[in-house]
């Protein structure tokens, strides 16, 4: 299986999520997503800023309300799409991630960051509260940490982001590629259909109460056993051999 690299490549505009950038990000995420070979997607960026969030030029009053709605709706679509994709999505962050850029990191399944990375939701400082980034932030950080970020606009260091669970790993800049690929390779060793089922279930159960979550996942475990790869994996384990996945 292979890993797709999506690179935000407009460093001159600090990789701002303009409407066109969001549209191409959506197209890249969806491209060939049903391919049996695709196993993991990595989102990284060119330049010192991973992503600065929305392009503020698009949000000035010259543009009408309809355009503003379109920008935020497209952004929400991309952020929720990441969690609906059947393959794991890893953010590989080397630099500053602010506002909707911070939301992007929070929305990925896994995030690996270099030590120099920073994370902020500074919208409050320019009179546009980061309410949509807060959706992703409030779901991946403790509430008081998210609110301090949202109220003050002050950045978290990479270590603070790790401590509070916004990122999964922090490594020196020269180890970022290696560490991200290590995780990616590990993911590629597993069955795609099993991972797809697991990912979809994880995001479904996390919003449920405990009893509902267990009822749902109990059924999913039973369904998992009916998958060819479910049986193959168990047989391989019992026979002390490497499993041969169905794709």
From TrEMBL:
Alphabetized UniProt keyword annotations: Fatty acid metabolism, Lipid metabolism, Mitochondrion, Transit peptide
GO function terms (MF aspect): hydro-lyase activity
Superkingdom of origin: Eukaryota
Chief location: mitochondrion
CDD domains, sorted: crotonase-like
Stored InterPro entries: ClpP/crotonase-like_dom_sf, Enoyl-CoA_hydra/iso, Enoyl-CoA_hydra_C, Mitochondrial_ECH-domain
Pfam families: ECH_1 (PF00378)
Subcellular location: Mitochondrion
Purpose of the protein: May play a role in fatty acid biosynthesis and insulin sensitivity.
Family: Belongs to the enoyl-CoA hydratase/isomerase family.
Annotated protein name in UniProt: Enoyl-CoA hydratase domain-containing protein 3, mitochondrial
């Amino acid at each position: 299986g292979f890993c797709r690299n999506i690179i935000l490549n407009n460093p001159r505009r600090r990789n701002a999520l303009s409407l066109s950038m969001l549209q191409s990000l959506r197209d890249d995420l969806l491209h060939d997503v049903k391919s049996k070979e695709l196993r993991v997607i990595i989102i990284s960026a060119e330049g010192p800023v991973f992503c600065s969030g929305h392009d503020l030029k698009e949000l000035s009053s010259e543009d009408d309300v309809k355009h503003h709605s379109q920008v935020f709706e497209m952004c929400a679509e991309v952020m929720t799409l990441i969690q609906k994709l059947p393959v794991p999505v890893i953010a590989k962050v080397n630099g500053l991630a602010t506002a909707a850029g911070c939301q992007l990191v929070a929305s990925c399944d896994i995030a690996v960051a270099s030590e120099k990375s920073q994370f902020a939701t500074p919208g409050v400082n320019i009179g546009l509260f980061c309410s949509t980034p807060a959706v992703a932030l409030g779901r991946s950080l403790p509430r008081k940490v998210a609110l301090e970020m949202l109220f003050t606009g002050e950045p978290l260091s990479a270590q603070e982001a790790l401590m509070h669970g916004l990122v999964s790993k922090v490594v020196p800049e020269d180890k970022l590629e290696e560490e991200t690929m290590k995780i990616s390779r590990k993911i590629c060793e597993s069955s795609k259909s099993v991972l797809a089922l697991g990912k979809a279930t994880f995001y479904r159960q996390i919003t449920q109460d405990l009893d509902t979550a267990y009822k749902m996942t109990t059924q999913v475990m039973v369904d998992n056993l009916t998958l060819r790869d479910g049986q193959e994996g168990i047989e391989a384990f019992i026979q002390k051999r490497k499993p041969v996945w169905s794709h």
